Amino acid sequence: MKKRPFTVGSLKPNTVSSAPLNPSPSPIPKAHPIPKLPNPSKPKILFSQSKSSFSVDPQRNRTLLDAALEQGQNVEYKCTKGSCGRCTVRISNGQALLSRPNEKEKEKLKQAVGEGYRLACQAIIL
Ligand code: FES
Q: Residue 56 and residue 34: Cα distance in Å, rounded?
């Protein structure tokens, strides 16, 4: 014997309802893509070169120059060996996320190293 679903009408004498008790669920609406918001807990490295300012997500064991270029930043550079000085930047935030200045930076930048200047091709992100 085939079971019939109970409906409100099935409780009334001499009535039969064809509506199922649990109609099929309505389709789930399509989700809109969630916009990518900056993660406030993840610090960025902020620096400037000439009159341009840059913001870079830290990428461990990469040079600041490599990370910046991979993230589409238009940082000037030439030799990538710490000798030309073209990649000199001034760090305004995130100095602690970088390696200590190496001998090439100290030699090229002299006392500017102590004022937040770095060679982006030599500064390693920790
Ligand atoms: S690109 Fe020449 S010192 Fe960095």
A: 22
pLDDT for 31 equals 73
Which ligand 1 atom lies nearest to the CA of residue 87? Answer: 4
CATH of domain 45-119: 3.10.20.30
Measured CA to CA, the distance from residue 60 to residue 41 in angstroms comes to 16
Q: Which atom of ligand 1 sits closest to the CA of residue 120?
A: 4
Q: Which of helix, strand or coil describes residue 54?
A: strand
| 102 CA to centre of ligand 1 in angstroms | 13
- pLDDT tens digits, one per residue of 26-40: 666 677 776 666 566
Ligand 1 centroid to Cα of residue 50, in Å, is: 15
User: What tokens does 53 get?
Assistant: 């300012």
